[in-house]
Structure prediction request, 256 residues.
Amino acid sequence: MGLFNKLLASIGIGAAKVDTKLYESQLSLGERMIGIVEVTGGSIDQQIDDIYLSLCATYTKEVDDRKVTKHAIIEKWKIAQSFVIRAGEKKEFPFSFSLPLDTPITVGKARVWLHTGLDIKNAIDPMDEDYIRVQPNRVMNAVFQVMKNLGFRLKEAECKEAPYRIRKRLPFVQEFEFVPVRGEFHGKLDEVEIIFFAQGANVFELLIQVDRRARGLAGLFAEALDLDETFIRVTINEQHIQTLQTDLASLIRRYA
Prediction:
């Protein structure tokens, strides 16, 4: 019977199970992600080599003129190694990690989740997945509010593969596309795209792309050649929040 149970456990029947419980499933960038991993023994004793947590996200990549969905690991942590879980036994492993500042926020099609895995030799590794809602921090919220105040509407937010010239540690960036629906930029610009690169807890480098609306024949040629797009880099922190609306308006106006 023991040998038969081992055989069943090796294909996942009667094997150990894992369940991750987060105290909060809605977090802001930089907040502590706190929880426990519960491991419950199956019908036999099993040797667990590692328990690891991986923070994952989806992004799109263009392949042969079509978009495909890819997965990326934002961060990975090992929380336990080399122990035996007895049949029917339950063990708990607490954890606490800061949510990385370059985690995409939950808007549009962006998906972020915590993947828990057990490493068991010669067996199917048990796993668990828990989705997380990621909220922007104070500086990001201030940028979103300013864009709204200036008459822009968030049209689309997408995690997409990053060109090598702007790529940081992750293979993707989260791009926010704003279109002017009222105010001084309505009719002057097609859109403004913003990418946030975290430099610290509340410090971001913004990569801003201003897409001017075509005006006349020369404008149409410029648009066809993508010459109507201007890229701007600017670093902001909490100290800039008070003057952010004036500063961003002046910046966009300069390239409109």
In short: The radius of gyration is 24 Å. Helices lie at 2-10, 138-149, 216-224, 244-255. Residues 2-135 form a domain with the Immunoglobulin-like fold (CATH 2.60.40.640).
